[in-house]
Amino acid sequence: MSQPTGYLAFIRENVPFLATGALLSFLSSFGQTFFISIFGGEIRAEYGLSNGDWGLIYMVGTGASALLMVFAGGLADRFRVRTLGIIVILMLASACLFMAFNAVVALLPFVIFALRFTGQGMMSHVATVAMSRWFIATRGRALAVAAFGFMLGEATLPLTMVWLKSYIDWRTLWVAFAVFCVLACFILFRLLRLERTPQSMADTTQATGMDGKHWTRADALRHPLFWSMIPAVMSFSGFGTAFWFHQAHFAEIKGWSHLALVSVFPLGTIMLATSTVAYGWAIDRFGATRLLPFYLIPYVLAFILHWYAPTLGWTALAVILMGTAGGGQATLLNACWAEFYGTKHIGSIKSAAAALMVLGSAIGPGLSGWLIDNGVGFEVQMLGYAAVFAFAAVILIIPTRTARLALAASS
């Protein structure tokens, strides 16, 4: 069977469960940096904030959400997606209303915390844990299909929101996002009338990891492989987030309009979609451990191009390269946690990784905003980001080879 036909058959056979992952991934957009940053100019103007002030507030709120993720992520091991997913969606709707009606600058860090925890944190976490647990032999493809929800948001929302802001007050838009979340609850409940893996069956459906055992979070945190992956986890979220967070500032220093810059983002999303499909197939064919050390290389090249970019065309190429790496980020890391450590405690293990990812996305905008305010140009920072990505890729080579041998021995 050819790859495209295999994907289509796989999707047809698992529509409700894959649609659940895609829906949750799409809803996470409302708490993602690429989305919140669209309103960065309005927020800074409304509250009288500099780039550094706004970056600091974002860092504090996101950092707090990372801390809570360590404890809340394990809920995905205890509750069905149908239950936990709806609770998280309703919490995200409340966070959107908080953004819409808050008028006090001192509460802004709490607004960011609420959006980041429910959106980027828990919504993404529940989606990927569900895919990792529900699918074993086809885990890569399941994660790839679910990631299309996030891609749809990334492709359509920035340009749409920049256009809508010209006609509708930005606070009113956040009310509309809350309404959309509530409506999505009914869709999710309909999709999961029969849960794929009821908790009562969990012990008989879990896959083991290295050494043929079910790793706990404590076991994983004591293992060097976990920490060798953290630079990749934190740098991708941290410095990738910094680019999206300061996109309006980046357009300004390059001499382009914000609308012109976001107009090239769909090119990256198209490549992200292509890359995600390819990685999903490759994971099921070759295993995630063989691919992991290489997925950051396009990011190294992308940020060098962002630094150089004399015209919008060069930045468009850089955005395409970011999409290429994004396919690996969307699938490889989530597949690796399950492949290395098994799925019985995947929620609590992945929550530790997700907390560090969210922490990275907190540090990136705060650090870059502080550097901008202190005279270190955002373009120059891109070269430093590229060097960090290169380092994160190199240190994965030996640990992943060791893990691959351990997995081969246990099987």
Tell me the radius of gyration. 20 Å
Our estimate of the beta-strand percent is under 5%
Strand-pairing-aware structural class: mainly alpha
The total of helices stands at 21
Q: Helix fraction?
A: over 70%
Q: Order of SSEs, N→C? A: HHHHHHHHHHHHHHHHHHHHH
User: Could you tell me how far the N terminus lies from the C terminus, measured between alpha carbons in angstroms?
Assistant: 26 Å
Task: Tell me what you see in this structure.
The protein is mainly alpha-helical and 411 residues long. It is built from 21 helices and no strands. Helix 5 (51-72) runs antiparallel to helix 19 (346-373), helix 6 runs antiparallel to helix 9 and helix 12 runs antiparallel to helix 20 (378-394).
Q: How are the SSEs placed, and which strands pair?
A:
Blueprint: H1 3-13, H2 15-27, H3 33-36, H4 40-47, H5 51-72, H6 81-101, H7 108-134, H8 139-164, H9 170-191, H10 202-205, H11 217-221, H12 224-245, H13 247-254, H14 258-262, H15 265-286, H16 288-291, H17 297-308, H18 312-341, H19 346-373, H20 378-394, H21 397-410
Helix pairs in contact: 2-7, 2-8, 2-9, 5-7, 5-19, 6-7, 6-9, 7-8, 7-19, 8-15, 8-18, 12-19, 12-20, 15-18, 17-18, 17-20
